[in-house]
Design brief:
The protein is of the alpha+beta class and 544 residues long. Helices cover 30% and strands 19% of the residues. The strands form six sheets. A seven-stranded antiparallel sheet has the order 18-15-2-3-21-22-23. A six-stranded antiparallel sheet has the order 11-12-13-14-17-16, with helices on one face. Strand 6 and strand 7 form a beta hairpin.
């Protein structure tokens, strides 16, 4: 009798995949980081879901063993595919070999979705993480899987990274009744940073004349670009492209941009680049972000930063709301009386007179179900070298907790059973983080300093503790190391939960509306707007 295992695929962003402009990924090559780490990130943004930390154990499998895969929702069809001879352990979105895969959705040509395909993007990611020991192998696995079982989602970008390399892979299906997908993957130069945020970003790319017969796809001579053999011919067949092969642009063929993709998506990439490159040069792209394509019609796929970046820099990049730029969300009347970068409404809305309006869409946003910064380090044993800094809410409002890829169990506050969307629990990281965040959102400028203090306190502690962890880990057996790293991850998580409980109690006492301490004045931009709107009504008058 064939053994059947079920692959649990309650995807971190599956529920939000159809939300517009959800998720952001940042990427750092090993020579662009201060210590040689490869880094990739994921803000999984969407409304109405909690995204716990998942763990799947490693194991050898019999030849006749099958794995059951299903899409999102209780009514999704179950399919069975052969299990791999061996599957690696996966904690979150990093496996035991320090391979990480994160994603954003950009939809693209809607007619290319094949709803009969067996594999959605998150299923594809998880299967690749279980089966691949390197980023290159993960791309190859993803190609084979969609060729054999079909792909049922829309356009997707993946950061596929390991302890040596970072890759951008963009992929889209081939329409109803057609298996496979068309895709391009490019290696990010080691000394560069890159990002993507719900828009296709790969345009022209190096090409070869023939596909690799063994692998079934094309690989350039330098090995730094891979793509499906029919990526250009399929675009010609569908009428998306009719020029010379050398002029072919993946983005223009499969994910053409409109104003929304530029302002809501490319603007996030621009802001990230601006943190690590000349602000003066990056501000030359502001007309592009406003829809003027006369000088610039895209952003670079990657840039070399002015100086190497740290994983702590990247954690803070994930909290960005365009502060200090022309798009600063805290600097005008729309930020309200407490200079808030949050807009608790849809991106697109109408003024009372019918004027079509929009809100900025930053990297940091309140609807995140989880956030992670994946750090891969080649000079340490895999179990210790791979760390996912994780938490379950808006990156701006949480402390990133180190989760080692060598763990063998999930900390209780991050576990699925403790994070129910309709049931508050002090044992839930999702609810404790949301509890604190939702106290701060309405009075942001007044209260955010207390959160920043707690956030920095924890993240400083986690960073300082790493040398002791590495020292203690030396000489441990594989089993001892797994138990030790699991214990440290659990202890770190419990420390965060205690500190966030203290923060919640501090905020309600310190900022109680019946407390003795008056609030600071409203934000100047808001006061000016009130004055303009109300004229003389609130102007104080002196009576002689």
């Amino acid at each position: 009798m064939k053994r059947i295992l079920t692959l649990l695929l309650l995807a971190a962003c599956a529920l939000s995949a159809r939300e517009a402009f959800a998720c952001t990924n940042l990427i750092v090559g090993k020579k662009a980081s201060v210590d040689g780490s490869v880094i990739c990130t994921y803000n999984c943004d969407g409304y109405g879901f909690a995204s716990p930390l998942t763990y799947s154990a490693p194991g050898a499998h019999a030849k006749d063993e099958l794995v059951a895969i299903r899409g999102w929702g209780p009514d999704a069809t179950v399919h069975y595919i052969p299990q791999a001879p061996y599957t690696y352990a996966v904690a979150g979105l990093m496996n035991e070999k320090q391979v990480s895969i994160v994603e954003t959705t950009w939809t693209g040509r809607k007619e290319l979705r094949n709803k009969e395909g067996w594999l959605g993007y998150f299923t594809l990611m998880h299967l690749a993480l279980q089966r691949a020991a390197s980023a290159r192998e993960a791309i190859e696995v993803m190609h084979r899987l969609v060729q054999e079982y079909g792909y049922n989602d829309t356009g997707e970008s993946f950061a596929v990274c390991d302890k040596e390399e970072a890759w951008i892979m963009e992929l889209i299906g081939k329409g109803p009744d057609r298996k496979g997908a068309v895709w391009v993957a490019r290696r990010v130069p080691d000394d560069c940073i890159s990002a993507y945020a719900n828009s296709s970003r790969i345009r022209q790319f190096p090409q070869v004349k023939k596909a690799d017969k063994k692998k079934g796809f094309c690989i350039t001579r330098d090995g730094e670009t891979m793509y499906s053999a029919d990526v250009i011919s399929f675009a010609r067949e569908m009428g998306y492209f009719d020029g010379a092969d050398t002029d072919f642009s993946f983005r223009e063929a499969y994910g053409p941009m409109d104003w929304s993709a530029i302002r809501y998506c490319e603007a996030r990439v621009w802001s990230f680049y601006r943190h690590h490159f000349s602000a003066e040069i990056m501000d030359e792209y502001l007309p592009f972000l406003n829809g003027d394509l006369s000088v610039h019609d895209d952003l670079p796929l990657w840039i070399k930063p002015d100086k190497p970046v740290s994983y702590r820099d990247i954690q803070n990049d994930m909290r960005d709301h365009y502060e200090g730029t022309a798009l600063d969300m805290t600097a005008d009347a729309s930020a309200g009386p407490w200079a808030s970068p949050y807009r608790n409404q849809r991106l697109n809305y109408e003024a009372p007179d019918g004027t079509k309006m929009f809100s900025e869409r930053p990297i940091g946003c309140q609807q995140s179900g989880m956030t992670m910064v994946c750090r891969m380090r080649s000079w340490l044993p895999d179990a210790l070298g791979g760390v996912t800094y994780f938490n379950m809410d808006d990156a701006s409002m949480v402390a990133y907790v180190p989760v080692y890829c060598g763990i063998n169990r999930v900390p209780a506050p991050f576990a699925r059973e403790n994070n129910h969307m309709r049931e508050f629990s002090e044992k839930s990281a999702f609810w404790m983080c949301n509890f604190v965040a939702n106290m701060i959102y309405p009075r942001y400028s007044v209260m955010i300093g207390d959160l920043r203090e707690a956030q920095k306190e924890l993240e400083d502690f986690y960073e300082a503790d790493q040398s002791e962890v590495e020292k203690h880990a030396a000489g441990l057996t594989a089993g001892e190391l797994a138990d030790y790293l699991s214990g440290k991850t659990i202890a770190y998580t419990e420390k965060m939960m205690r500190r966030w409980g203290e923060l919640a109690r501090l905020l309600i006492v310190k900022y109680n509306d019946n407390g003795p301490r008056p609030f600071p004045a409203y934000a100047p931009a808001f006061i000016d707007a009130v004055k303009h709107e109300t004229g003389e009504r609130y102007v104080r008058k002196e009576i002689n």
